[in-house]
Predict the structure of Tripartite-type tricarboxylate transporter receptor subunit TctC.
Amino acid sequence: MQIKLSMRALGIAGLLLATLAGPLAAQPAWPTRAVKFVVPSNAGGSPDRVTRLLAERLSKKWGQPTVVENKAGATSIIGTDFVAKSPADGYTMLSTFTSLVQVPALFKRVPYDTERDLVAVTQTVAVDVLFLVRADSPYKTLQDFAAAAKTAKPPLSYGSFGNGSSFHIYGEKLAQSMGVDLTHVPYKGELPSTTDLLGGQLSSSFASVGTALPFLTDGRLRPLGVASTKRSPVLPNVPTLGELGMNMPDLVGWFGVLAPAGTPAPIIQKVATDIREILTQPDVVKILRDQGLEPVASSPEAFQRRLNEDLVQWKKLLPEVGIKPAD
């Protein structure tokens, strides 16, 4: 009887092991087909360029096509919503930027829940932002600009890539610090505002180093300060606005990759690890730094903490500068 019971117990144990091992054994290799990275902004911008650089290298590494699809519009909501509602199988991912954490503070209704519907994979880069004027303007320094702004009628203007964007926040905090009124002019991207600054339609504008660098190199724009918390390694002689006495928020622009919530953890870890490997390659580091982008390649856990902190900070910052959520 004892032997029969033992054999029965062994049989049950074997059945349980087979049941548990089944899904693991059945888990297919990943990827086995094309992987899509959705960029919620127009082609040609810095987020798009970084994503395409990564996609090219990931395609070679994975032996599968890695496609970049631009779904711009509604302050990045359209592309983000598409990914948030995509299957959680690792074949559709979001390659986005700081707007992700701004949207919940900017709009009363958003068609997805950032914290519930998306999961962090990795922050790819940190982005340095400049406060710019035309090189032929009379403003040689930030002090020159502030002095002119105190008496300017109509007020001096600044461009940003949209209402409630980080550039908008920078501009309002800068105006508060200088004790002046500045007219905010929102655009749909950095390049249009930079173009209008070059054309004389704006007094000043904010832009990432990558967008501004060609115009700094050819002598058409002048940086008055770095809006980021540290000096840019590309422009080490340009002081931060904080160094110049401005009370600026501790905000750092970023690009990063997320996936639909529920994407298997092994896939999340693989994508993060493979992107980290690419972002440490010397030629990739040089390409990015030449555009004013600092490679980060954080872990999924570290990026998720960053997102959670930023979501709280943006909801606090907007009321401070008088920006109310839109319907």
